[in-house]
Known about the structure:
Blueprint: H1 3-12, H2 18-23, E1 31-32, E2 38-42, H3 47-52, H4 59-70, E3 79-82, H5 96-113, E4 117-121, H6 123-129, H7 135-138, E5 143-145, E6 148-153, H8 156-161, H9 163-174, H10 176-192
Parallel strand pairs: 2-3, 2-4, 4-6
Antiparallel strand pairs: 1-3, 5-6
Amino acid sequence: xxxxxxxxxxxxxxxxxxxxxxxxxxxxxxAGAEKAQIVFIGEAPGFYEDQQGLPFVGQAGQFLDYLxxxxxxxxxxxxxxxxxxxxxxxxxxxxxxxxxxxxxxxxLQLELISPKMIVTLGRYSLAKFFPGEAISKIHGxxxxxxxxxxxxxxxxxxxxxxxxxxxxxxxxxxxxxxxLARSEEVEEEEESKPQQxxxx
Length: 200
Ligand code: URA
């Protein structure tokens, strides 16, 4: 069994949030390539995700597939997960303690996958990686830290309900391939730099 599959078993047994553990049908750990270059992180499973144990299988997921397709990618090329691994009942917002309880799973996933690029979709992943910042100001602008590119995007569900956001999210998605390609160039440049000799 792969380390990620082992992690899924641990997540499936999680009882840290009493209410969510009782009310969930299935946990939704994530899905996709275990060695993906890009990880997309949404908010929380909804009704259909909870039924199937898979992320983004509803309407927002169909739009995400369309967006991926626009840059020549399929789900099996990338990894998708959520900040929350269980559905909050009635799709209520997760409580701050629930988000805190769940964050270890996301951190372990990211350690195992070690992606080059993390794309945040929606409020909770934005709050984790860009705390205190407004999506309207920073969407579509990458940041690089410790050799990982962080890239905030609007949530696909928001774009489904607001036509004006649709063009924005489509345009932000189209930037991803060149951002990744540029990061590879930077890495190559760094690797080919002569090592500086230390005099001390
Ligand atoms: N919205 C999310 O943020 N995640 C899902 O898995 C489905 C819808």
